[in-house]
Fold this sequence. Notes:
Blueprint: E1 7-12, H1 17-32, E2 36-40, E3 49-50, E4 64-69, H2 71-80, E5 87-91, E6 102-103, H3 107-115, E7 120-124, E8 127-131, E9 134-135, E10 142-147, E11 155-160, E12 163-168, E13 171-175, H4 183-186, E14 199-204, E15 213-215, E16 220-224, E17 228-232, E18 236-240, E19 246-250, E20 255-259, H5 266-270
Amino acid sequence: MIKNIKGVAIITKNLNKNAYDASKYIAETLSKNNIKVFSIPPFETSNFKNSNSNFNSLVNEIDVVIALGGDGTTLRAFRFHPSDIPVFSINVGGTRGILSEIKLDSIDYAINAILNGNYYYDERIRIQASLSNKIFLPALNDILLIRRNLTRTPNITIKFRDGIISQRMDGIIVSTPTGSTGHSVSLGGPIILEELNCLIINPIASINKLPSIIIPPEEIEISSNHKLDLIIDGQDRFLIEENDIIKISLFPINARFIRLIKKGFRQLEKLGF
């Protein structure tokens, strides 16, 4: 737990006035408590330092990242900094805000709780993809490999430990427990308690109806006889050439959320159950 918060970075949902106004209010409140505030685009104001999205310039100056928006904003906040600096997520304009801790009406309560140390850390595993010597940014939710040519169904090969499965399918998604409520669940995958250390492999439109499988968080190799798109957390997209070998493994640094209240079925509550 952080004893004395000295610096905070704020990142907001794009083109959302409520998120911008709330960010400005939080920044002013923190500033009154002698805490340095750094604005991450698109939140920019002349009263606070603009980081220009360069985390390396902030790593020694911030203790917390505050994300205001939906789950997409929270995912972007974690890609902005692949370190263990904690993120506090506020749902502003999100559909469900599964990753968030509070809504706008609890901002004052949350700021006071955090400044007084009344919170705990919620750590989540992350995964990363690599291709030869290229290492991609980590994913908190999932890594999707999907066919680029919609008129041809690729043969995708999955290698795990000494086992190999090779079948025709549209693609494959590898999810963390955090991502089990995202794209994975729409494919019929299970909801996994977020604190567990495991991965979900979800084939997409497999010709032979290959089922989902839950595995330990160990390295997976994936290749295809056709070009694929690699998509990280539904936001960053990269071209993968045919026969390239993509390796997906555990990222060495867990994502860290700031939480105020412990909940046993956080995911199910957020999904409306």
